Known about the structure:
heterodimer, B: mainly beta, 6-stranded mixed sheet, about 0% helix
Amino acid sequence: DGGITQSPKYLFRKEGQNVTLSCEQNLNHDAMYWYRQDPGQGLRLIYYSQIVNDFQKGDIAEGYSVSREKKESFPLTVTSAQKNPTAFYLCASSIVMIDEQFFGPGTRLTVL
Amino acid sequence: AQSVSQHNHHVILSEAASLELGCNYSYGGTVNLFWYVQYPGQHLQLLLKYFSGDPLVKGIKGFEAEFIKSKFSFNLRKPSVQWSDTAEYFCAVGLYSSASKIIFGSGTRLSIRP
Lengths: 112, 114
């Protein structure tokens, strides 16, 4: 089955620790995205990548980092510098930018 | 700055009622338009999209949306809702520019009373 996988589904971390969220796609899409979803705020773009080895900051990149070493993978690291990291994180991909996006199931991160 | 507005944050309807969810955007250039739906416990998925051509587009599950360029709007409609339409609905706009991007609205939560 083609699609996007995110792991884990739930993640708990202590304050001050960095944590990496996984996102893998087998759709052969060039573009990949990370969003943060908070109640009443919709989806806010953290980072996006249009091609391997290239990525750009989105609207709320502070405290986050990404890499795109392989076409299929776009991991997101939530660093200790992110002031309010507890949230639901969604990964998505598309053939090209501003095309239809396909979403993963999300990871709910709770920082204690 | 470019933005997407969904003015209805929470809509409550009875089954068989008609639905219209508003979506307005602020951008004067060429756009791609999308409606996504997130059913409880499920992935965000595409409901319908508009790239060009007939401004009235039909999507899955009886939904449709109309692009009115002069009003910068892309409202979602369904003539008769069902309990299974309970979900969160997101409008998204793809902007054609030197730095193309997609902007999502804040979402509308739809609750259907059986």
